[in-house]
Design a protein that fits this description.
The complex is a heterodimer of chains A (230) and B (491). By secondary structure, chain A is mostly helical. Helix content of chain A is 69%, strand content 0%. Helix content of chain B is 75%, strand content 2%. The chains are: A mainly alpha (230), B mainly alpha (491). Chains A and B meet through α5, α6 and α7 of A and α5, α6 and α9 of B.
């Protein structure tokens, strides 16, 4: 069993690197779907008190949502928006990869230092969780398209979910269902928003969304003014 | 009974989306708001029994916040019904940039409004940390379509920021919830469920380092939603672009829900004997928020954004109150009540001004007192109330928090707070009086008289704040004390 877990953990880490390196939106959606699949299988292997019906149900639900529904939803809003399919960057793929290697290295280092609640046999689990969360945050801030921000949010959520699988299995079914439902609705609404953004601006770059701010008053429209004078 | 406050609005929201008839839908909105208020009032008389095996409970703390939500929603529902009747159907012109846009379908708006009420009520009765998380995230999701009521690029931007920043913040809070589970499972008594009562009963057994990390993550996560600086960046945009009635609910009710999330984990932290840790963090975030808000209020040119920054200020004051502890906790809860009533009232009045002048610029609005006498008087009363002028309720609560801060020897915090309050008073008074006085605009049509539904709800809220400043009803006083005791055993 432990071998299988190690393989899954490595697969998830690899998919994080692929996400950081991805150049096309379509590929990024596929990768996040693949990561969702690996995550879905994870609770089947990483159980502590035997394989219960509850874990199987969770696994099936997660696989359906993260590996099938989310990618289809995102691919659909990508198709309908008719926007360019290549990712545009604030921080390029090479620098992202280098950053990723640095983050993974440092999380390997302090993953051993962290006092874990249960003496866990999965030494790579904590670095994987941390690396996936940071990957998500990095994608959120360093990619220009709204769709990539949704994918970043999903990666962040995947990392948190993985932590739950490894270290917080005491929660009851209802809560997990609620969490899944919230994430599902969240991605659903975000998908709709991506569609609206693309229709409003002819592309899905969230960097277009920069009218509202208080910091740099010089480049800002006069607050609320103008309309009545024009 | 306890289930009803959640189920009724949720079912009604489904009904509202299905109903074809516009008037019936608006009537449903007011009806549900009234029913919800009646249920809440009933909870004051007889505290409802816990449900779902203790997962849903209404304690004093929850009841305070539930009452705020219920009262504000009733006022907002009456206002919203009139607002929706006033809104033009079909394509219309934006008054800032002159492009054309349409509104969201009204069925979606009313449905989401009711769903928003249901999810916020769920936050106040959740005693399980997992369910609390689900409920707070659900408030984000149900309110996002409300902000995107006017379908144009500015509100789209505001909604996107709101959705993304709050979702990421809430995701961090989920991580915090898992850390809390770790703290519970690392204890000698394994497998303490994440129910508040159980955690408090076994607080000595919780693993302290994990609990502290859990608090930190939940503070950052829920703090993002509460609007604590520097995590507040979604707040001014969402509040300025949403319809005023939604801004009123966001500011008066939603921010409090996130605050309640922080208070819940604070309860566990206090019981486990790490109160100092939590209080220190709350003080830091509180002071940063107040200072941040001051800077942006002073230079503000948009009156809805000014109110939004004022919300950040007051959230900071509430965080400081709990951070000081003791009497400050009591003051903070009282402040939550006062601030919600006042801010909701101000946003509703701002909606009236916006509808009349068709601009959010503080420079272009003049002579409100002459053009809109009712709203003008309320705007002035709101200005006095929100800046903590006696005899309004906020004066009492701010004074309580300041006294507690001085009493506990936190002089730096107290002096900073005092300076910020003075600066904000001067800035807001300058902005708002400029809007109030002066000539009515040239060539403006004589005021057609203000609709009762646009003036009465804010007027009632205003009266409530005034009364709270002069006389604190014993029932409310008792409830606030009970809630403060839950948080802080030293009181």
């Amino acid at each position: 069993m432990n071998d299988l877990i190690s393989i899954l953990v490595v697969v998830i880490i690899m998919s994080d690197f692929l996400l950081l390196a991805a150049g096309s939106l379509r590929a990024a959606v596929r990768i996040i779907g693949f990561q969702g699949l690996a995550l879905g299988v994870l609770p089947l292997c990483a159980h502590q008190n035997g394989l219960t019906l509850r874990l199987v149900a969770i696994a099936i639900l997660v696989i359906i949502l993260k590996a099938v529904v989310f990618p289809r939803l995102l691919l659909r809003s990508l198709r309908e928006s008719g926007a360019p399919r290549t990712i545009t960057f604030f921080v390029g793929p090479v620098s992202s990869l280098l950053l990723g290697i640095f983050v993974l290295g440092s999380s390997l280092w302090w993953g051993y230092l962290l006092p874990l609640p249960e003496r866990s046999p999965y030494t790579l689990a904590v670095p994987m969780v941390f690396f996936t969360i940071v990957t998500g945050l990095l994608l959120l801030v360093s990619r220009r398209q709204a769709l990539m921000q949704v994918i970043g949010y999903l990666a962040l959520e995947n990392g948190i979910y993985a932590f739950g699988v490894f270290f917080a299995q005491s929660e009851s079914m209802l809560i997990e269902l609620g969490i899944l439902l919230d994430v599902f609705v969240g991605v659903f609404i975000m998908g709709i928003m991506v569609f609206h953004i693309s229709r409003e601006f002819d592309n899905i770059e969230s960097s277009q969304l920069s009218t509202l701010r208080d910091w740099f008053r010089g480049s800002r429209r006069p607050a609320g003014g103008g309309g009545t004078l024009r | 009974m306890i289930l009803l406050v959640v189920i009724v609005p949720v079912l009604a929201s489904l009904a509202a989306m299905a109903v074809r008839h516009t008037r019936a839908r608006r009537a449903l909105l007011i009806l549900v708001a009234t029913a919800h208020a009646a249920l809440t009032a009933g909870a004051w008389v007889v505290r409802p029994e816990p449900a779902l095996g203790g997962w849903m409970q209404l304690d004093a703390l929850g009841l305070i916040f539930l009452s705020i939500i219920s009262a504000l929603f009733l006022a907002a529902a009456v206002y919203a019904a009139a607002y929706l009747a006033r809104e033009q159907v079909g394509t219309r012109q934006d008054f800032e940039e002159s492009f054309l846009f349409v509104n969201e379908p009204e069925a979606v708006f009313v449905g989401c409004l009711l769903l928003f009420l249901g999810t916020m009520s769920l936050v106040t009765v959740s005693h399980n940390f997992g369910m609390l998380w689900v409920a707070i995230e659900a408030t984000t999701l149900s309110s996002a379509p409300l902000i995107y009521f006017h379908r144009h690029h500015r509100s789209l931007e505001a909604t996107w920021k709101y959705l993304l920043i709050c979702s990421v913040g809430i995701a961090l809070a989920l991580l915090g919830t898992f850390f809390l589970a770790s703290a519970a499972s690392a204890s000698p008594e394994r497998g303490i469920p994440l129910v508040l009562g159980e955690l408090l009963a076994h607080s000595g057994a919780l693993d302290l380092p994990w609990l502290k990390v859990a608090f930190l993550f939940m503070l950052v996560g829920y703090g993002t939603k509460m609007g604590l600086a520097p995590l507040h960046s979604w707040l001014p945009d969402a509040h300025s672009e949403a319809p005023s009635v939604v801004s009123a609910l966001l500011s008066g009710a939603l921010l409090n829900c996130a605050f309640l999330g922080i208070l819940r984990i604070g309860q566990v932290l206090n019981a486990a004997g790490a109160a100092e840790f939590g209080q220190g963090l709350l003080l830091v975030f509180g002071v940063i928020s107040v200072v941040f808000a001051t800077v942006f209020i002073v230079s503000q040119l948009d009156f809805k954004r000014m109110l939004a920054y004022s919300s950040i200020e007051h959230m900071g004051i509430m965080a400081i109150g709990v951070g000081v502890g003791g009497l400050g906790t009591f003051g903070s809860l009282l402040h939550a009540v006062n601030h919600s009533l006042t801010k909701a009232m101000l946003f509703l009045v701002a909606g009236n001004i916006l509808a009349r002048y068709r601009t959010k610029s503080t420079k272009l609005v003049n002579g409100v007192l002459a053009e809109l006498p009712g709203s003008g008087v309320l705007w002035m009363a709101g200005l006095l109330a929100i800046t903590g002028t006696p005899p309004f309720g906020l004066f009492q609560s701010e004074l309580t928090i300041l006294r507690a801060a001085f009493g506990s020897g936190r002089y730096v915090v107290a002096v900073l707070l005092l300076l910020a309050l003075v600066a904000i008073f001067v800035a807001m008074a300058a902005i708002m009086t400029r809007m109030l006085y002066g000539q009515a605009r040239e060539g403006s049509a004589p005021s057609p008289g203000e609709a009762a539904a646009a003036v009465v709800p804010p007027a009632v809220l205003c009266m409530a704040v005034l009364i709270l400043g002069l006389y604190l009803p014993p029932a409310l006083n008792g409830l606030l004390r009970e809630a403060a005791n839950l948080l802080d055993v030293r009181l």
